[in-house]
Design a protein that fits this description.
The complex is a heterodimer. Chain A is an all-alpha fold. Chain A contains eight helices and one strand, in the order H-H-H-H-E-H-H-H-H. Chain A folds into two domains: 105 residues, Orthogonal Bundle (Rna Polymerase Sigma Factor, Chain: A); 73 residues, Arc Repressor Mutant, subunit A. In chain A, helix 2 packs antiparallel against helix 3. By secondary structure, chain B is of the alpha+beta class. Among the domains of chain B are: 48 residues, no CATH class; 110 residues, Immunoglobulin-like, CATH 2.60.40. Chain B has five helices and nine strands, in the order αααβααββββββββ. Chain B has an eight-stranded antiparallel sheet with strand order 6-5-8-9-2-3-4-7, covered by helices on one side. In chain B, strand 2 and strand 3 form a beta hairpin. The chains are: A mainly alpha, B alpha+beta. The interface between A and B is large, with 72 and 40 residues.
């Protein structure tokens, strides 16, 4: 996770190794650690609590069955689970042809007015996570707006670079360059956190 | 040194925005380029951090219970559950014995079917053949294509290429097998097209390739190279 200490990453990898050996307590601990951000991502992309919960269930069952195939050299545990979640959500969006219902929330979104069974995290029990999220949000908000916009459209809406180019009225090469430069800046600034 | 174009591809790859044939070509490059793997990993971490900008939400507690029940069920399916004692305690044993006999019959039947299948496979090499369609990747012409028929059991295959113009003097096309258990692509030899841009060649990789994910053709120095150096022109998975 951005800003995650190497000690936390070691713990995450240890949990994944234990889950690979069918350790339910390690699975429970990993769920407690990651379900919040993964559910938040699913909610942002799907905009529907029931679907987001189904997607999260798919993701964690996949983590349970595929933990032994996790490759630490390819990504951190956090990134692995985020990209699994995004992939499951995209499958759902494709299957139901519901791209139009994607919630295009800006990074300034708030979760006010939520009435489903899920809850907005309380400040008290998520200070650490929210601090980290705030740092990432700060970094993202300080990217040039055209780079931020291109990355957000690609990541949260899963628009292709062709679709992003059409939506922004920019040449394809410009969109590719914006995504690349944005990720390079994000990478550089996150590593300095 | 990673070019801007490679960085563009890496960024689009981690965001899942490449077309399947572009992703296959990029994975081929990743296999052969440690520096590119590093940047892809860093882009993956940066992209994943985007998830933290979603408004924070907590799933309901009932979801965790549902998931924990589900994985507990999966565990139980893997363990033997003892039958409870009952007044008619012999009934479960009788059922078990009947099931055992039934399973035995099924096992005999399965062995017979497997033998028949093995005979059919031995008689028909196509049943052991996997086909790979290779699509062009810049700078190859857009209509260039190739098909590989690969027989893992024999460790050999046939490639048919069309619409690929002859390379410039001093260069050759080289075929590579991307195998899951090898860090670098395995050379399957130089392939030469005729004046019409066509070739049909039988090949055999220089090392054993039991888990081939993709085949690719690159442009290399004349006579071929032990490790891929030049650009990929055609690539494809099964």
């Amino acid at each position: 996770m951005a800003g995650t200490s190497s000690a936390q990453e070691m713990l995450d990898q240890q949990m994944i190794a234990q889950i690979g050996r069918r350790d339910q307590s390690a699975f429970s601990a990993l769920y407690d650690r990651l379900s919040g951000p993964l559910y938040s991502l699913a909610m942002k992309m799907l905009g529907d609590p029931a679907e987001a919960q189904d997607a999260l269930q798919d993701v964690f069952l996949q983590i349970w069955s595929r933990a032994a195939t996790y490759h630490p050299e390819q990504s951190s545990v956090f990134s692995w689970t985020v990209l699994l979640t995004r992939s499951r959500v995209i499958d759902r969006l494709r299957a139901r042809g519901r791209r139009s219902r994607v919630v295009v929330a800006s990074t300034e979104d708030t979760a006010a007015g939520v009435t489903d069974a899920s809850t907005v995290e309380s400040a008290a029990d998520t200070v650490e996570k929210n601090d980290e999220a705030a740092r990432v949000r700060h970094v993202l908000n300080n990217l040039p707006s055209e780079q931020r916009e291109a990355i957000e459209l690609a990541f949260f809406e899963h628009l292709s670079h062709h679709e992003i180019a059409a939506r922004l009225g920019q040449p394809l090469g410009t969109v590719k360059a914006r995504i690349r430069r944005g990720l390079l800046k994000l990478r550089e600034r996150l590593s300095n956190l | 040194m990673i070019s801007e174009e490679q960085q563009d591809q890496a960024a689009l790859y981690v965001l899942g925005l490449l077309e399947p044939h572009e992703a296959a070509a990029f994975e081929f490059e990743l296999n052969a380029n440690a520096e590119l793997r590093d940047i892809a990993r860093e882009f993956r971490e940066a992209a994943a951090a985007m998830a933290l900008t979603a408004p924070p939400r907590t799933p309901p507690a009932s979801l965790k219970q549902r998931i924990m029940r589900e994985i507990a069920t999966k565990r139980e399916e893997r363990t033997v559950v003892p039958l409870p004692r009952a007044p008619f305690g012999w009934v479960p044993w009788a059922i078990a014995a009947a099931l055992a006999v039934f399973c035995g019959l099924l096992a005999i039947d399965r062995v017979r079917l497997e033998r028949q299948l093995a005979d059919v496979r031995a008689a028909d090499p196509l049943m052991q053949t996997t086909f790979y369609t290779l699509a062009p990747s810049a700078p190859a012409p857009a209509d260039a294509k190739a098909t590989v028929a690969w027989q893992p059991g024999r460790q050999s295959g046939v490639i048919r290429i069309s619409n690929l113009p002859s390379p410039q003097p001093g260069k050759d096309y080289q075929l590579w097998a991307v195998d899951a258990e090898h860090k670098d692509p395995i050379s399957a030899g130089v392939v030469r097209v005729d004046k019409n841009g066509v070739a049909q060649i039988r090949f055999k990789p220089v090392e054993k390739a039991e888990h081939v994910k993709a085949f690719a053709i690159s442009l290399e120095r004349e006579g071929g190279v032990p490790k891929k150096e030049g650009p990929i022109l055609l690539v494809g998975s099964a």
